[in-house]
């Protein structure tokens, strides 16, 4: 099951451009907390990188 999610996440990320967590979670069809878990694992093995972006009001971008 985890492999299926991670394959869907990496496929969604290869479309190019910026991907925001909320947008990516909707696209893949999983919750944001579950997406974070999978993104952490993919980052640990060097398949993805992440960057925290803040909006003008200091909140994390959706």
What do these coordinates show?
The protein is mostly helical and 62 residues long. The chain has one domain (1-62): Winged helix-like DNA-binding domain superfamily/Winged helix DNA-binding domain (Arc Repressor Mutant, subunit A), CATH 1.10.10.10. The protein is built from three helices and no strands. The N and C termini lie far apart (26 Å).
Which CATH class? Answer: Mainly Alpha
Helix content: 40-55%
The name CATH uses for the topology is Arc Repressor Mutant, subunit A
Broad structural category:
mainly alpha
First-last Cα distance = 26 Å
User: How large, in whole angstroms, is the Cα Rg?
Assistant: 12 Å
Mean pLDDT: 84
Topology as H/E string? HHH
Low-confidence stretches: none
Strand content: under 5%
CATH architecture: Orthogonal Bundle
Shape: globular
Query: Count of helical segments?
Result: 3
What's the total number of strands? 0
Instruction: Tell me the domain tally.
Output: 1
The CATH homologous superfamily is named Winged helix-like DNA-binding domain superfamily/Winged helix DNA-binding domain
| Biggest beta sheet attributes | none
What's this model, at a glance?
The protein has helices spanning 2-13, 21-28, 32-44.
Descriptive tags:
single chain, 62 residues, Arc Repressor Mutant, subunit A, 3 helices
Task: Outline the fold blueprint.
Blueprint (H helix, E strand, L loop, with lengths): L1 H12 L7 H8 L3 H13 L18
Helix pairs in contact: 1-3
């Amino acid at each position: 099951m985890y492999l299926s999610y991670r394959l869907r996440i990496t496929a969604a990320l290869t479309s190019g451009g910026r991907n925001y967590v909320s947008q990516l979670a909707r696209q893949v069809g999983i919750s944001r907390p579950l997406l974070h878990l999978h993104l952490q694992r993919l980052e640990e093995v060097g398949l993805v990188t992440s960057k925290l972006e803040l909006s003008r009001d200091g909140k994390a971008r959706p």
